[in-house]
């Protein structure tokens, strides 16, 4: 009998180790999967904004959206030599590392498991950090990624500050301050929200931490002052920039008005996704609650789930097709179901710290989305890692019941499955790109000596545009006014300088007015020698006549040197039209004089054009 029990225990230990090893392998595959596709694809519009701003952040006095992320990522961009693929890989690696550290600290603090389990399971949960790159298939650093990274830093700092030892506390509050500064650089609205969250967290739980919190604020302030002097020569310059950014954003009319920030968006879902979320939550709860007493069946089921996850990553088949908003429903239903376990034992023995931290993690995705015109639930799901960590903290009373491994393993496994499904969807249908990255084969040289693998049609478009532009006399660094409203990536590939903004975006009520105002800040000498890119029949085309007249130019002052047809992206830009690249033919001195005269005649109410 004792021999049978020993054999059974040995088998269960072996099964546990096998499951842990399989989870580690799955995490590695998911991470390698995203890194592999970091060199695939290029968004026609958004990534052009990011790359133009990161490559030359000091060229622009106005930033739309009102973010300073380009200044933060400018030096990493230079360190990698402008190689876009390497920059993406570094961005992904840094984000996952932050997610891993945060998950590790949460599990280590609230659960009683050995460090091998903590390391592997926290890595599995941290794979959800990869979802932040799936929504718009934008691996290039942006204000979205910097905001997410900032929130991770702040939460790591708060948890680290609770560890015993002065070194941990000092390092923790420095991280909180640095994360707050990064958040301001990325998204000031989210920075205000996370500052409020930190204050409430500290005041409610640790009144003695008010002084260290002040130290964190001083760290953020010091970094902000240094930033102000580096970017704008002083605090007044930075304040002026931020005020002008906000006013220009309102002029654009993109839906970022203050009253619209504080809203409750609907959680868009479907019956099928709701059913998937309910079934997933039930399966998750059964795995958690059965795992402590009946280990064999839950372990086999979890192993099967991991195999399916690996199959999704390697084969591209997805039997479940999870949508982003479902990432909230599964944790929510899991917490709701756990409340009824043993007459609410999970609720009855909650500590103030776990309650506060659970609520904090739950609201962080909405803090991440605050100020955006996009649905808060959809955009907030980029921070789905916070939702799963809310579940980890909420269920932590089960650690007292000896259910640590039985609870954490299913959570990590389901996090990996959800990650694989979401990322696979973004590969099959990348945002504003030709479908299915797996079908991309055309290796395309990029500025900085790097290369990206693109769809053949997009590669041909860029190659044709580059060849014709160079043949027409376009040189590296030439200023260009993009009036298509949708082509900042083309300007980046051509290695030109986008005037006015990194992306003169079209399609909004105030697009033309913003273009006039921002171009009014450019030097007339640059506008005099600037080329034009237009799409006369394009959906997002800016008003050519009014914008050109604002700097004293007209159609007769340019000659077309290149014509090319952009590829059609089904679902994003199905009706793109022929584009033309125009070269200035007027004498530079005459064009510059006309620009100055046009500015003198503009109404004084247009404050930025002087």
Give the SSE map.
Blueprint: H1 2-36, H2 46-55, H3 69-79, H4 84-110, H5 115-126, H6 143-161, H7 166-186, H8 188-205, H9 210-232, H10 235-252, H11 258-261, H12 271-291, H13 296-315, H14 326-338, H15 345-348, H16 352-369, H17 376-380, H18 384-394, H19 404-428, E1 442-445, E2 451-454, H20 456-471, E3 479-482, H21 488-493, E4 497-498, H22 511-519, H23 524-528, E5 531-534, H24 544-549, E6 558-564, E7 579-584, H25 588-600
Parallel strand pairs: 3-4, 3-5
Antiparallel strand pairs: 1-2, 5-7, 6-7
Which strand order does the major sheet show? 4-3-5-7-6
| Radius of gyration from CA coordinates | 26 Å
What is the helical fraction, as a range of percent? 55-70%
Our count of helices gives 25
**Residue share in β-strands:** 5-15%
Low-confidence stretches: none
């Amino acid at each position: 009998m004792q021999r049978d029990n020993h054999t059974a225990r040995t088998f269960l230990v072996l099964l546990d180790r096998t499951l842990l090893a399989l989870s580690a392998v799955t995490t590695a595959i998911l991470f390698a999967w995203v890194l592999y596709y970091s060199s695939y694809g290029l968004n026609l519009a958004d990534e052009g904004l990011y790359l133009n701003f990161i490559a030359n952040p000091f060229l622009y006095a106005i930033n739309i959206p009102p973010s300073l992320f380009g200044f933060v990522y400018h030096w990493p961009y230079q360190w990698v030599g402008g190689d876009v693929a390497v920059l993406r890989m570094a961005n992904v690696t840094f984000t996952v590392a932050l997610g891993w550290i945060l998950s590790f600290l949460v599990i280590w603090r609230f659960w009683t498991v050995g460090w091998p389990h903590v390391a592997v399971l926290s890595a599995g949960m941290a794979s959800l950090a990869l979802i932040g790159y799936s929504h718009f298939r934008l691996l290039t650093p942006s204000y979205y990624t910097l905001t997410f990274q900032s929130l991770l830093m702040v939460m790591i700092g708060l948890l680290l500050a609770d560890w015993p030892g002065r070194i941990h506390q000092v390092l923790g509050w420095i991280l909180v301050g640095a994360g707050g500064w990064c958040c301001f650089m990325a998204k000031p609205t989210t920075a205000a929200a996370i500052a409020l969250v930190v204050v409430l967290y500290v005041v409610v739980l640790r009144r003695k931490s008010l002084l260290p919190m002040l130290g964190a604020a001083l760290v953020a302030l010091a970094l902000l002052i240094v930033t102000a002097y580096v970017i704008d020569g002083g605090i007044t310059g930075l304040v002026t920039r931020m005020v002008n950014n906000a006013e220009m954003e309102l002029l654009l009319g993109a839906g970022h008005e203050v009253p619209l920030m504080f809203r409750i968006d609907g959680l868009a879902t479907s019956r099928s996704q709701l059913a998937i979320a309910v079934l997933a939550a039930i399966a998750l709860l059964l795995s958690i609650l059965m795992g402590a007493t009946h280990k064999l069946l839950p372990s086999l089921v979890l192993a099967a789930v991991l195999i399916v996850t690996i199959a999704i990553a390697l084969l591209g088949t997805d039997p479940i097709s999870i949508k982003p908003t479902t990432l909230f429903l599964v944790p929510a239903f899991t917490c709701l179901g756990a409340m009824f376990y043993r007459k609410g034992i999970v609720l009855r023995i909650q500590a103030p710290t776990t309650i506060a931290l659970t609520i904090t993690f739950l609201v962080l995705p909405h803090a991440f989305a605050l100020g955006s015109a996009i649905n808060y639930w959809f955009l907030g799901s980029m921070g789905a890692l916070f939702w799963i960590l809310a579940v980890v903290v909420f269920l932590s009373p089960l650690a007292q019941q000896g259910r640590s491994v039985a609870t954490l393993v299913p959570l990590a496994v389901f996090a990996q499955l959800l990650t694989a499904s979401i990322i696979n969807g973004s590969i099959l249908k990348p945002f504003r790109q030709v479908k299915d990255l797996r079908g991309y084969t055309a290796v395309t040289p990029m500025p900085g000596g790097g290369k990206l693998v693109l769809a053949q049609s997009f590669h041909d478009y860029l190659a044709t545009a580059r060849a014709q532009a160079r043949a027409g006399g376009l040189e590296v660094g030439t200023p260009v006014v993009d009036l298509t409203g949708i082509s900042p990536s083309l300007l980046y590939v051509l290695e030109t300088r986008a005037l006015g903004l990194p992306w003169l975006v079209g399609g909004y009520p105030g697009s033309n007015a913003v273009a006039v105002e921002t171009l009014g800040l450019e030097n007339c000498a640059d506008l005099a020698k600037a080329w034009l890119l237009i799409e006369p029949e394009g959906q997002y085309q800016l008003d050519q006549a009014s914008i050109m007249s604002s700097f004293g130019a007209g159609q007769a002052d340019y000659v077309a040197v290149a014509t090319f047809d952009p590829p059609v992206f089904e679902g994003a830009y199905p009706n793109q039209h022929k584009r033309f690249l125009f070269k200035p033919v007027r004498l530079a001195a005459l064009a510059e004089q006309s620009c100055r005269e046009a500015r003198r005649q503009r109404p004084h109410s247009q404050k930025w054009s002087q």
